[in-house]
Batch of 2 targets.
Target 1
Amino acid sequence: MLAVELSGIWKRFPGVIANKDINLRVDVGTVHAIVGENGSGKSTLMKILYGMQKADEGTITVNGKPIVFSSPSDAIEVGIGMVHQHFMLADNLTVLENVVLGSEPSKAGRLDFGAARKRILEISNSYGLDITPDVLVSELGVGDRQRVEILKVLYRGARILILDEPTAVLVPHEVEELFQALNGLKAEGITIIFISHKLDEVLEIADAITVIRRGETVASLNPKQQQVTAEQLAELMVGSELPTPETQGSTVTDKVVLSVARLTSVNKDGKEDISNLDFKIHAGEILGIAGVEGNGQSELVEAIMGTRAATGEITISGVNVSNLGTRKRRELGVAYIPEDRSRLALLLDAPLWENRILGHQTKAPNAKGFRLTPKLAKEDTKTIVKEFDVRTPGIDVLASALSGGNQQKLIVGREMSSNPILLIASHPTRGVDVGAQAAIWDHLRAARENGLAVLLISADLDELIGLSDSIKVILRGKFVADADPTNVTPQELGNAMTGAVKAAS
Amino acid sequence: MTAAILIWRGTSSKRVKILVIVISLLATLSLVRMWADVLDLTSRGTISAALGLAVPIGLAGLGGLWAERAGVVNIGLEGMMILGTFGAGWLGWQYGPWAGLAGALLFGLAGAAIFAVATITFGVDQIISGTAMNILGLGFAQFFAQVAFSDAPGGGPTQSPSIEALPSFTWSFISDPLVDLHREGYFIVSEIAGFVSGVFFRLSILTVIAAGLFFASGYILWRTPFGLRLRSVGENPHAADSLGVNVYFYKYIAVLNSGMLAALGGAFLAIASSGVYREGQTGGRGFIGLATMIFGNWRPGGTAAGAAVFGYIDALQLRDANGTAMRAVVLLGALVLFVLAVLALRAKKYQTMFALGVISAALISWFLVTTNLPKEIALVAPYLATLLVLAFASQRLRPPAADGIPYRKGESK
């Protein structure tokens, strides 16, 4: 029995064909993954299935009946629900209020809180979602919020769920919880369409996989019956062999660029977020920091950049910067790729060329003396856009108009084009697709050969092991182990990160 | 105080907590009244006047609450209030007070509609269009007051002829005996007597209506599907939209309500407080209303409390011929700050505690070395009180998340 069948779907936008002749068959009660690079057309396809956009050609069949959607409410009516990548929740309302909003049970004009609570608990219990109706959403973690989103959709009677990159915002144990919940849903006969480009996760959860490349369905696989590896999937996605983060040979010199001693930062609860960290990074060396998120990585980076109060000594190429402000530190040649690009690296409502000035506002080509030089900055932005392959209609568009991958390339370009001696990179390839990832790796490798010192923080262990010359494992704000990237496996590293065993060094 | 804290801790009931706060406040007030020896602090006249001064501010605040709960910062409340005073004056002197009331609502609605079209449909910055609203309201009222009232009997270019009064109630059989009880000066008992006698003395029907509106607003906004949708629009309009809530519709309703409430506040000033429309009558009460709404954490109960504090200090200040009552207010302020300092100490917020403690000590020494306060200081007292309260309350305040952000359908991030 098919829950959803899409056949011969075409969708053209001015200048691009987003979907060409896409065919998709999803069985009832299965998890069906749709994989593809950013911009391969999978989001467009899902918007078509959810009624947000209309296909130019092709038919949609839901539960055996051909259907034409003109708005999401049509899709909701036939039992299709969408869980958006960016949560659609109001933080200051309770879970209950968020769930019932728009289809509230009422009694004599009054919102019937009792009935709503009962219904929510019923759904939560029958699918094992573990949701408490009367807490504020602001008190929930990311994983809980996602389950609230799922419950919201189920509350409206959905039997087919579309999850748009659901794991992008989750940490590993939250992914585990999500998968448990999805299995619970599947057992109750709910159909799940799972969009992702994280291939390991796809292989773990999916009963069937459809691969989309440049708007076309290039393969339909059944991982439960045939042997499929992540590499094969990736090659299908990209259409060529997969890039790797491997570096060639050692370029480490004996010139110390960054030296950190006894670095400690205490948070407002009086707890030490990082305590007594000591390390050195040499020119041409990439030092990787491995750790489960929230173990002091962010605090370490902020302490080095001077945006968080810390004690201890930080020396950048011989200059003690412990008491210098962030701008002074950056002027010494520190480049910075922050972990959260929309919050820390970009002004989303400013054009690209203004974003290019950001953080480098005192130096050429952006400024001369106390005066900004927009003309030169714009010229330079054009160069960055070209060299770093930022796909944009121009440098006057707002940063918010770019996709995540292109935003990231712009940031990397901005930071690398100032000829830095030290790069602090937090998750430099997070949320970008395979192609952009490879490009960013190339730039990092080239800079390393030219003598750049890099502090690399990444949750992608393959990236960390591949790029780094040495790795330190951080746990609860302390370095607990060193690992040698030439012979450590991601599994060993993962164990060390959770404090289970010491990594082989 | 220890007892109060113990009861506070032992209960989770909101009602009991409110009762504890009210009784503690009454006790403090009583202590101050006895220490400073100012009987007028809680007399029938003071309470009655305070109520009359609190209502327009409270209505403006409630208007602000409606708009901001739907994500629109309505800084144009003052302008809408002025329109309300004019509407009340213009129709009021010709056709009676009830017509004046209707006129105020109509003018408030019209002003709010202009503001709503600009901010909601066209997405104009809310502060700018709100400021424009204030200028427009003032200019409109000034111009048409000249046109309408210059030749009217008993009117002038800046003032309307007098408006007939609305019904008001005095229940002497309750009020009068309590006045005698108040004069006896018993601890707490006299305060309660003063309050009750004040409430049942020349109680305007508009005050009753205003109180009803506060309860109705609380019920509608927090207990009905309509209210949930309206609030969701102020918290996350994109989420609301994705669930089929018509964001623009709810914003319009909220802003129109806001304008009518502010105008009703204006009508109160014109009809109940003075019996005429007079230029400059609002005296910035729209802005003060906005401040009480913030003080009240965007909730009706809090807003009412804020307006009450304001009305109370204003009333004392107006009735205070020789500055002794204002001197008592200094002591009252000192005691309240002292209590807050103790609470800060318990919460281990030492900096806050220190700041509060120092101000409290300074106020007490001031109280001790003076016998009366200059009138000038008395005049700014209500504003000073607001400023202080906002400064210390702001850490706990939580505005609607999407407050002040223009909404554009489909521009989700």
Target 2
Amino acid sequence: MNQNTLKPFLTRSTFVLALLFGGHELRAAMSRGFNQLLDAVVRIDVREVAFEAGSKRLASSIGSGVILSDDGLVLTNAHVVSPRAIEISVTLSNLERVGAQLVGWDHWTDLAVLRLDLPEIKRRKLRFAHGEFGDSDRLFPGETVFAVGTPYGFTRTVTRGIISNTSRYFEDPRGVNGYETGAFNTWLQTDAAINPGNSGGPLVTEDGRVVGINARGYIGADNLGFAIPANVARKVVADLVHDGAITRSYLGIVPGALQDLENFYALSLNTGVLVNNVDPGSPAARAGLRGGDIVLAIDGTRVDGRFPEQLPAIQNLIASLPVGASAKLTVKRGSELRDCILLTEKLESRVGEEWVFEKWGLSVRKVSRTYARENQLSDTTGVLVIGVQPGFPADVAGLSRGDIIAKINQQPVSTLATMKDLHAAFLAKPEPVLVEVQRNRQVSLYVLKP
Amino acid sequence: MIASSPSRRRLAPLAGIHRHLRFVFPIAAALIGATAMRAADLTALWVERVKSVVAVEYYTETEAERRPTVSYGTVIDANGTIILPSVAVSPRATPAQLKEFKVYRPGNPVSASAQYLGQDAFTGWHFVRVEESMRGELVPITAFAVKDTVEPAMAEEVWGIGLRNKDEDFLPYLLSSRIALVQSLPQRTAIAQQEVAGPGLPVFNRAGAFIGLASSSFGQNYIQFSREDRGGFPVIMVNVEESGAFQTAGEILPYLGRVPKNVYGRPLAWLGAYGLEPMDPEVAKFLKLSGQSGAVISEILEGSPAEKAGLKDRDLLVAIDDQPLPRFKPDRVIVTYVEREIQRRHPGDLIALTVLRGGTRLDLKAVLGEEPRLLSEAERKYFDRLGLTAREFVYDDAIARRAKTGDLSGVIAHYVKPNGPAAVAGLRTDDWIKEIDGTEVKNFAAAGEKLSAIETDKFRTECVLLVSRGGVTSVLRVKL
């Protein structure tokens, strides 16, 4: 798959500037709304910590964003600004730069919210405009839209296209810097040129309403771009501003489209959703659900998962259930119909907390519940090695990326804190440490030597 | 010595070979300490020894193709028994798929048919027996075996036979080199400076005594570069027709009698210790076990003799029958060593295992069992209309999928015909079919019945499978 998030433009990239002479002069009769929108689009420069190399390194990138309010909220992509950011610099439309802070992020929808440094803005007497959301549900294929952003670092670039599809479905289990995305919403597809650096910029209608946030494109294809619909973004922004994060529920059901299977399951059309898989150990598994079951209703709300495009809404319905509450699923298995009561869990990413132990030259990520399930591990004990620095103890011992460190000095690594303590002890008194590592299913012992 | 007496008995009627043996031994004795030998002697040695080597051709018949394979073999007795190296047959092929074994003598286009006898787990050799008509033309390698063979010495000159391809009638040619290194891997393995024989073919010393059997060749690193790309990429090149490495006679002669009793090579001793990993020398030092080696047992398989003996996942095996595990280089060789220690025993044998568990040393005793049904023994059936071969779900399938071994339900999609109905529905090779048309698949027979019924029902337009792949299930609709 060539489909990538639009990697924020890297500052060291080079490019060729093609000069075009003799072009016709085109007079754009832009609305007042559109002009105001242009003044609300910003360039975002981010410096963030990268743990992967067995040491703490800094990476910098460029993306786009749109100011949403007078109090300086900026909406961008989760793959532009994440909690790893240590410095966020926003370039306003008047080319002035101000600092900003991350308010919250949500990789599932690939959205992040920042807040401009208002005291600084006040002190420097800077001005900015803000954009307004439009209704993305009312878009139609063929409708003219514009993408505004910072492709390849070119600030305030406007490109024009149409809405190519209003509800494109794709899930990407590693789409946002290794985090899952796309399970809970469909995407707008547009042929407005979207390039790396456009990420986080708005997709707008002719009257300047923000109908989407540009996020992805097929690299190498001709103008297959994707944006998060404004109606999804509006709710995510509200929740991020309120809580700093979005809490979702999890049942452990992997849905499938029922398309063509209605006869087999003796269902009338547009009824129910197929359960393709039930995650082992999940609430659904505990309630006895299994692959091949049909869910007809969730807490009395009938579901219709006939086509793939309908699945995100059903996933979102599950995600919107309160965490730790019971949910009643009406399930059909064969000719039998029954109600199952499931206790929801909090949805977790596969990607656990990351850390680097610099004296060992070792970057790790905590094994999460989701990671353990996906990799058929018996529990969440251990940390996943995500990088080793050449020549450092972990590398010399023979550890490599993908290994799971299960025990250190015979002590199970159940939390990152355990490991931090052991590393601190190593710093205080450098002595060889015995490490038990699982690689695929093979278990080996290694010694980290000072 | 298991094999020496039967070999002698089989050799008895061949008076010519006896004469030959008498002729060779004094020369060999005379050569000790000699620095050179006349080329004419080698010519005479060649003429007799080339009768011990053959090329073996067979076909692997699968659902989709019929593929010929040619391998080299060495004659081991007067009954026309030939051993082929373990790589001669793909581990995925079942004995039933191996057809039309033919044996060719070097430089001779006339073949004789042969029978496949099976693979010996301990040596890895495949055994083939050629029909009587050709046996008189062959000379077993034991004819050139010298009692108490000394392992080849550093820099000693050795030679062997290579065979050209079938289009050149497997013409034999001479290869020779000097010994560069002798190592335990864990079998004593000599590595020559250059290729000395075709893989699976014998190697001789200058006196003509059999000193070893060529293994598969080691890969050699090369840097591939071109005018456009000066940096180049390292590539590993393997010479598949010739080898510079051979296992010494002491690793071959005692085991020539291990002719499988059946094509599956049973009985097969089984411990049930999965995923052995060598102990790192630094770890040995840390655990104060320097001077020996060890192996971590990643998993103890459910219901296995190891489990019954009280072994646990992640135990560190340090001794077998009270003997500390010997050190090898590379470290990984210990894994093969332990596996061979099990394979050389029989089901029912007692094996004493010493393990370290969290710093405690434990002495455990296991009674080896019989290996559970193998993949190659699993029943299978091809369903042409579905484009699918269903295979019985066996113990190893459960292990590979981290499933409970007590419940061997479902069947495996052993082969999925490209672009066939099952493939179009999304079924892939090695998928685990758990339900057919909403009914749980209890076993292979039940699956076979169900799939046959679907195949023969002309009015059928679809069937629905519940399959599991990597622990994740999905429902597939197969349009017929």
